[in-house]
Amino acid sequence: MTAADLTQMAVLVPARQLEPGLAPMLRELSEAGFGAMIVVDDGISATDQPVFAALQQIPRVHLLRHAVNLGKGRALKTGINFFLDKLTGFSGLITADADGQHAVSDIVRVAEAMGTRPRTAAVLGCRAFSGDVPLRSRLGNSLTRVVFHFFSGHKVTDTQTGLRAFSSALLPELLALPGERYEYEMTVLAHLSSKGIYPVEIPIQTIYIDGNRSSSFQPLRDSMRIYFVLLRFFASSLISAGLDLVFFTFAFWLTHNILTAMIAGRLSSLVNFALNRKLVFHSHRSVASTLWRYYLLAILLAGISYGGIRGLSEGFGWNVVLTKILVESVLFLLSFSAQRLLVFGSDQRG
After folding, report:
1. According to the model, what pLDDT value does residue 105 have?
2. Staple 276 to which of 11, 65, 264, 280, CB 3.0 to 4.6 Å?
3. Average of per-residue pLDDT values in the chain
4. How many C-beta atoms surround the C-beta of residue 257 within 10 A?
5. Are 59 and 84 in contact (CB under 8 A)?
6. How far, in Å, CA of 53 to CA of 30, rounded?
7. Which residues pair with 11 in a beta bridge?
8. Spatial distance between the Cα atoms of 131 and 289, rounded to a whole number of angstroms
9. Do 33 and 9 contact (CB within 8 A), yes or no?
10. What dihedral angle (degrees, nearest 10) is formed by the CA atoms of 280, 71, 146, 172?
11. HEC readout, 208-222
């Protein structure tokens, strides 16, 4: 991609505090030929405001300001809104961190990859997490990567990367997504995955300055926000499991017959199918093609569940309802993975 092509790309940088490397990075981006650099002041201290204001002297830099810290997600949305409202003729927007973790050469490489992608596409600059990486960063990314892969079926090397590129056509829907802090970036990945848009990954340098001490990421609090985003994606299964248990318990109380209670419990499957198809997996397949797969899987799992409940309750004298909860909890993981891969799986787009 030439400097002329970079003029169609803008770079968005949310800044929680004034980092020493921010001004040099903006100058390099300007010299590289990017069409605009949007910097969002997300609560920079009053004493640093004169220095921050001076950044506007760098060609094509636009400064936006939050009066108080509102979170990285809100800062990204503020920048995206400005991009859509005030800037025209751009093909894509790149987000980068203000703390020096992203080399300008890597930002350019991500922009080059973005320039070759379809109209609705995304690119991630992914770190390798090898060598001298802070423990909290290595463990945090590893755990989030595993959890995200389980829930989405999509492997992302670096789920927490702040270096991302999006085509302009995607931005309006990303702007409308929930999330005000770090969880917003995970919401974006989950949203893209649910639509069958899988970002292209570009390897970038792993840079941590002073052990990443300048990061405002709070491991416990912000990780919980991130995981809550992922948990929303199988909430419908928990709702359906609750209905199943209510129907099963009531039918067993009336008949004392496990098979009859199993059939009654499976009345919740229609709710589960509808919610999973639309809200969890956002399937692009037709109802006809998914319905028979879903019920074939449901019959298979019901048979396994029936055998497990009857065997444990009659063989060991376990309480039937508690045994059902145990067996169904084990089968839940299998059911979720099978539905994601075999029933509602969508075609990949990049």
Report:
1. 96
2. 280
3. 83
4. 12
5. no
6. 17
7. 37, 94
8. 47
9. no
10. 40
11. CCHHHCCCCCCHHHH
Domains of the chain (ranges, CATH numbers): 3-217 (3.90.550.10), 234-343 (no CATH)
Q: What radius of gyration do the chain's Cα atoms show?
A: 24
Tens of pLDDT, residues 92-141:
999 999 988 899 999 999 999 998 776 778 999 998 766 666 666 666 67
Structure tokens that stand for 62 in this block: 């636009």
What is the secondary structure of 79-95 as a DSSP string?
HHHHHHHH--S--EEEE
User: What is the tens place of the pLDDT at every residue in 165-215?
Assistant: 999 999 999 999 888 888 899 889 988 887 888 899 999 998 765 544 545
- pLDDT at position 214 is 46
Distance CA 164, CA 76 (A): 11
Phi and psi based region of residue 11 (left: phi greater than 0; alpha: psi -120 to 50; beta: remaining): beta
Under DSSP, is residue 170 helix (H, G, I), strand (E, B) or coil?
helix
pLDDT digits 0-9 by tens, 15-63: 998 888 899 999 999 999 999 999 999 989 888 899 889 999 999 999 9
- Sequence-separated (6 or more) residues with CB below 8 Å from residue 218: none
Which residues are registered as beta bridge partners of 10?
A: 36, 93
Residue closest to 95 by CA, chosen among 5, 3, 189, 176: 189
Q: Which token pair is 157? A: 């090397």
Percent of the chain predicted with pLDDT > 70: 83
> What does the buried/exposed string (b/e) look like for 66-75 if buried means 16 or more CB atoms within 10 Å of the residue's CB?
beebbbbbbb
Query: Rounded to whole angstroms, how far apart are CA atoms 230 and 144?
Result: 10
Length of the chain: 350
Q: Which two tokens stand for residue 242?
A: 């609750």
**Alpha helix (H) residue ranges in the chain:** 3-6, 22-32, 49-54, 72-86, 104-114, 135-152, 171-175, 183-194, 219-231, 235-255, 258-265, 269-275, 287-316, 320-338
pLDDT at 237: 66
Region for residue 163 given its phi and psi (left: phi exceeds 0; alpha: psi -120 to 50; beta: otherwise): beta
Strand-strand pairing, 92-95 and 9-15: parallel
Residue 324: the pLDDT is 87
